[in-house]
Structure formats: C-alpha cells, structure tokens
Amino acid sequence: MTYFSALLQPDRGQPAHTIHIVDKSSFDAWLGVQPARHRTAITAQRMRPTGYAHAILPGDTADDWSVVTVVADVEQFSPWCLARLAETLPEGSYRVAGKEPGPAMLGWLLGQYRFERYHKDKHAEGPRVLLTGEPARIEETVLLAEATAKVRDLVNTGASDMGPATLEAEAKALAEKHGARVIVTQGEALEKDYPMIYAVGKAAAPEHAPRLIELEWGTENHPRLALVGKGVCFDSGGLDIKPAAGMRLMKKDMGGSAHALALAGLVMAAKLPVRLHLLIPAVENAIAGNAFRPGDVLQTRKGLTVENTNTDAEGRLILGDALTKAGESEPDLILDFATLTGAARVALGPDLPATFSDDEEVMAALLKAGEDETDPLWQLPLWDGYDEMLKSEIADLVNAPDGGFAGSITAALFLRRFVPENTPWAHFDVFAWRPAAKPGRPKGGEALGLRAAWKMLKQRYDS
Is-catalytic flag, 316? Predict the structure, then answer.
C-alpha cells in the first residue's frame, strides 16, 4: 500500500531541494544565465530539452543541490510533468521554483505508487515529499491518488485473490468507513431476482459463487446517483472459451467494479449531497457442466428474454440485471463502468474509454471534465440504426450480434434496453489496463475516466 498523505506538505519555508522548470522554448535562455558548474553538470548528464528529461545541479555543499526538469509547457502544468522526478529522485523534500505545482501534485503522488503484494523484496526507497503553497489542494489530490491506487490495486490482484467474495469484502470495508450499508443477494434469491447474473456465474466454484453487491449511502432528500460496475473476476469466455492470449489478462475483467468502488469512495469521502446506490454484479465466467450455453434463452429482471449467442459476451448480461435494479429507484443519474468490448480497444486503443450517453448535457459535461482533468474520454454514438442488429428470431433480443460490426456500439445499445427511458445514463467502456509504462502510470491496472467522472459529479451536485 502506498501512503500518499505524507507525500504532499504545506510549504512553510522548510529546507527542500529546488526543482527548476523549463520547456523546450525556454531551455536555452535559462541555461545561458546559469553558473558554469550548472552548465557543466547538464553537459555531463547529457540532458536535452525533451520531455521528462532532468539533471541534478550541484550547490555550495554536498546537500545543497537542486534539479532541473523539462516539461511540455512552463505556463500550464499537466498532472504528469513531475511524475518522472517522483519516480527517480532521492528521498527528501522538494519545492518548485517560482510557481505552485498545481495539478502536477497528482503525478507526484502516483509516481510513487507501487503494487508489491506478491514481491518478496519490497521497495526500500524513502518518500519524496513535495511542498506546496496551496494546502487547500492537498486533501483533494490525495483522495484522487488513493482512488486511482485503489483501481490499480484491485485490477493488479490475481484472480485467485480477487473473486466475488473479495469484491463483497471491499464494498463492506468501504461501507464501514463511511457509514453506509451493504446488501448482498446470492443463491436462490439471485437466481429468482437476477437471472442473468446467476446464469453467467453459476458454473464457478462455490467459493466464487455469483452475487449482486449493493451499497446504499446518503439521505433520502438528496438526488439519487447510481454507480454500476462490471465485476467479472475472471473471464474464461465460458463455453465459447477464449484462446490463451485472450485469457491472459482476464483478471482485469472486474475493472469496471474497481472504478465504481473508487468513485463511490470519492463521493462518500467528499460527502457529496447525493443518495448513492452502488451496484456490483460479481461473477466468475467459468466452465463446468452447468455453465450457460450458446443458444440458451435467458430470463432477465426486466422481463425481457435474451438469446445468448456468445458466452463470452457475458458482461452486458450481468450489467443488464444490475441496471434494471438501479433504474427501479428512479435515479437522477446512472453511470456504469465496464471492461466490456475488444471492439472499443480496436477503435480507440488502451488510453481512451469509449463513452456513451443518451443525455447530451451529461455527455458534454463528461467530455469537458475529461479535457480539464487530462483524463480524456471519447464519445461513440448510440446509433439507433444498429439497434436492429440485436433482433432475435426466438427471443426479445440477442446479447451479441453476428458479424462483429460496431461491437462496442451494439453492446451499449444492449445495455440501453435495461435503462429506464428518460433517465440520464452514461456508459464507460474502459480497458482498465496500461500495456506500457509512462511517468506516474506503471504497466498494469489503471483508472481511466475516473477523474473525469468525479469532476462531472462535483459540478452536477456540489455547485
């Protein structure tokens, strides 16, 4: 576990190493006024004015050194411009020369994130502390870093240690921390009331039995906010089994639930004036003699019937029942997060969550928040013309159309069938994984769209 609260401290003039900030356009001018020993150090360290480059600058004593680093724009910091320094500098305290770190505080914290659950030898380096003259920003930044780390930790955890019962335990720990209550439905009650969740998860071992996890928090007079997260703790593909390469990362198929849990934690920590309803359908899509089959017609909580055309399109099935339940309380807004389709990754790659909404105001607010937070989203259409692809000859609809066209859109259209009309709703098709490391963003589990969603919620409910 990474403890972020100690890594940002108010600047009260305490001793600290100085971080000089330059960009490509200002580098030569800055270098020209430096003392000879600094120019020599930069030459010796072969520093060039390229992104994240840095060099140590000697001072009058061995402990009196500073550092210079190159950012994209000295006038507008990104969250990640100091993240490389946080990963590589020696332990100690630091302050930015001439300005406040602002949004770069987040990258400073996340640059020191470590997932070491399975390592025998833990990371031994001490903390790098960043000083700021904006102490009011510290608490929010720490909360965002903790929420991001929570997503990363949950997704990085192996499926042997991250089953439906673990997600239930995470929800209960969150509820205990914030005075919420948790309701868990499983067994015969799940089969009766949430038949698609039960169908997908029934082949798992008893210790990984399917369940719907619900958390309730807030007061009745506040607008109701529903957060839904796909909790497929491991996805073999079911009887439509995945190849080995496709199954390799399927421990991350509960990434939607990790996002929903982290966002719920932010809502409660900030005491946002909402009536929160968190729903996590938690299953393992396993293979056994009682596994659901291609061609089965599934009942749903909504009363629709679904012809199961692909057991590897299971995420939308469990979300359908959860979205139905969410809608029954007449929420002001529903947000769902899911590692739902490979089609979204083909279209947008790993960094951009495909985002859908049937409400123009909600979608515009999300896109603007993503831009403001450097947490980008990309809107894809709920194209009504593709709704006919969901037609079934023997049931009300299919879960996965033949042909593979517009796969992320048809998945979103399937989910829309389970959202009440005129209820604002947004769907995030996230990858929840970073295939290659970047400063402050190691390879592995990742929160995508989380900060954008959080900013939108604050603007909607806390204005």
Answer: yes
